[in-house]
Amino acid sequence: MSNDFHGRPPGPTVQPASDSAALAAFEAYWRKMRHGAIVPRRSDIDPRGIEPLLGNAFITERIAPGLARLRIAGGHLTDLMGMEVRGMPISAFLEPGSRDELAHHLVCLFDQPATLRLSLVSAARPGAPKLEGTLLMMPLRSDLGDISRALGCLVSTGTIGRGPRRFEIAQATVTPLDACANPDAKPRLIPFLPERAEDERPPEAVPARRPSERPYLRLVKS
């Protein structure tokens, strides 16, 4: 896919009424590109196959468990943020309170692997009316064969107004690809249960820490 991925739909603020059909066609194209494999290759994705949502589409690269950054992004994503978004984490489109949940679902997307669909809501504020959206992400293989890319799109309904616009997750649907292969299988609505902080656990649940022989040294993992 060319880096020129900024084909904008007519009008930067209001998405077409046929979003559901366009999203279904977007996902159907990804399925077609699997060519019998579980996950299609990044090199198999042709922008002509997703032209109706080209301005909403993006490709992310996994850079750590639960974290993916935008390598290519359509013009609608730039409109939502009010700035260039390539190189930014996909979590930048979410409110801070929803980012841990997204990270949890991204681990499922790349590790199971699975497809991910999020229903999104951006609350109204001065200069920016309420906005609703859908985020769809589907895994891809890199040229090396590892599942470290994802094809996605973000559509929104309503007037963008003053950016940046960030969303909260209203509902998440994670569908493992073994379920995708079974037409009778139903996708799962995934409630996110954040882990309790260590200080919130009962005393008996907190593991004891052994004193360090060198208390002035600590291991730092990047």
Short characterization:
This protein has helices at residues 19-32, 75-81, 96-111, 177-180; strands spanning 57-64, 67-73, 114-122, 131-141, 147-157, 168-176, 188-189.
Describe the structure.
The chain is α+β, with helices and mostly antiparallel strands and 222 residues long. Helix content is 18%, strand content 26%. The chain contains 4 helices and 7 strands, in the order H-E-E-H-H-E-E-E-E-H-E. It has helices spanning 19-32, 75-81, 96-111, 177-180, and strands at 57-64, 67-73, 114-122, 131-141, 147-157, 168-176, 188-189. Strands 2-1-5-4-3-6-7 form a 7-stranded antiparallel β-sheet, with helices on both faces. Strand 1 and strand 2 (67-73) form a beta hairpin. The longest helix has 16 residues, at 96-111. It is globular.
- Largest β sheet strand count, sense and barrel closure: 7 strands, antiparallel
User: What is the N-to-C succession of helices and strands?
Assistant: HEEHHEEEEHE
Low-confidence region ranges: 1-17, 201-222
Report helical residue fraction: 10-25%
Structural class: alpha+beta
Mean pLDDT: 82
Count of individual helical segments: 4
Q: How would the global form be characterised? A: globular
Strands side by side in the biggest sheet: 2-1-5-4-3-6-7
Share in β-strands: 25-35%
- Please give the number of β-strands: 7
What is the quaternary state of this protein? single chain
Instruction: Return Rg in Å.
Output: 19 Å
What is the CA–CA distance across the termini?
A: 31 Å
